[in-house]
Design a protein that fits this description.
Layout lengths: L17 E4 L6 E2 L2 E2 L3 H10 L3 E6 L6 H10 L9 E3 H12 L4 E5 L2 H9 L3 E3 L8 E4 L7 H13 L4 E4 L5 E4 L2 E4 L1 H12 L4 E2 L6 H10 L6 E5 L2 H11 L2 E5 L6 H6 L6 E3 L11
Parallel strand pairs: 1-4, 1-13, 4-5, 6-7, 6-8, 8-9, 9-12, 13-14, 14-15
Antiparallel strand pairs: 2-3, 10-11
Bound molecules: magnesium ion (MG).
Magnesium ion binds next to loops.
């Protein structure tokens, strides 16, 4: 038996094949990788498993993340990532192919949508059928102005946002993420978006399908209850809350969202291979 933070035996996680990780607060904070992450990823590969980083952060593309992880010592390729931008593209290509989409986000986000063949503009357009807001660390008051004008004057356009996270961790604390930005827009325009990323189960379901794994073979690791753990629960897979990031054990006790297991950090997983 190997016990988790709450005294529950988690040894069967050793038999999992698809390991889905949140990034910030789960495998690193800023540019500092957590202890045991590299060893754990090696073990997964040795056992013929697969690891994928699932992130609600739409401001970076998979190629940006490949570089970032390389800097902290993790070798990856495009297949190791699934972002809320990927989920947004799949959704829009299915439902709004060829239709005009107004998007507010980083240049990287807008380029990814365009490269996927979507009809995107970042300027006011009264003919748009869709408005999408993403986390934007290049945000300007001009962009906020245009988005509010779109939301107010183009009432027929469906309104989406990439992810509902309230805050994005930075080295001194946090800055407003997409959820907070959309709350600001709601106060200004009265409109609420449909959120696409975690806690919706879609990102997890798409990745399981893509790589041919079952729910029983899959486990989600994350540090945020209302997104990471909630998405795993709604997809019906096992979840592990890591206390290395946002959620504390007190948050866990008070939350209605519960994970299958609680670990201090992913380093605890190494106990399974001793
Ligand atoms: Mg996180």
């Amino acid at each position: 038996m190997v016990l988790d933070y709450l005294g529950k035996d988690f040894s069967y996680l050793k038999n999992k094949k698809l390991f889905l990780f949140d990034m910030d607060g789960t495998i690193y904070l800023g540019s500092k990788i957590f202890d045991g992450v590299l060893e754990f990823l090696d073990q997964i590969k040795k056992n013929g498993g697969h690891f994928i980083f699932i992130t609600n952060n739409s401001s970076k593309s998979a190629s940006d993340y490949i570089l970032k992880l390389k800097e902290i010592g993790i070798a990856t390729n495009e297949d190791n990532f699934f972002t809320s931008t990927h989920a947004t593209i799949l959704h829009f290509n299915k439902h709004y192919k060829g239709q005009k989409i107004y998007a507010q986000g980083t240049r990287s986000f807008i380029n990814e949508l365009k490269e996927a063949g979507l009809n995107v503009t970042d300027e006011f357009d009264s003919t748009a059928n869709v408005i999408v807001v993403a986390y934007d660390n290049e945000l300007t008051s001009q962009k906020m102005f245009t988005t509010c004008k779109m939301l107010t004057e183009v009432k027929t356009a469906k309104y989406y946002a990439t992810n509902p996270d309230w805050v994005c961790p930075v080295d001194f604390g946090s800055v407003p993420d997409c959820g907070s930005m959309c709350f600001g827009y709601e106060k200004a325009t009265g409109r609420k978006p449909v959120f696409i990323g975690k806690p919706e189960p879609d990102m997890i379901n798409i990745v399981m399908q893509k790589f041919g794994y079952t729910k029983e073979q899959t486990v989600v690791f994350g540090d945020r209850l209302y997104t990471d753990i909630a998405s795993g629960n709604s997809a019906g897979v096992d979840t592990v809350l890591d206390l290395s990031g946002e959620a504390t054990i007190n948050d866990y006790s008070e939350s209605t969202v519960k994970s299958t297991f609680v670990l201090q950090s992913v380093k605890d997983m190494l106990k399974l291979y001793e």
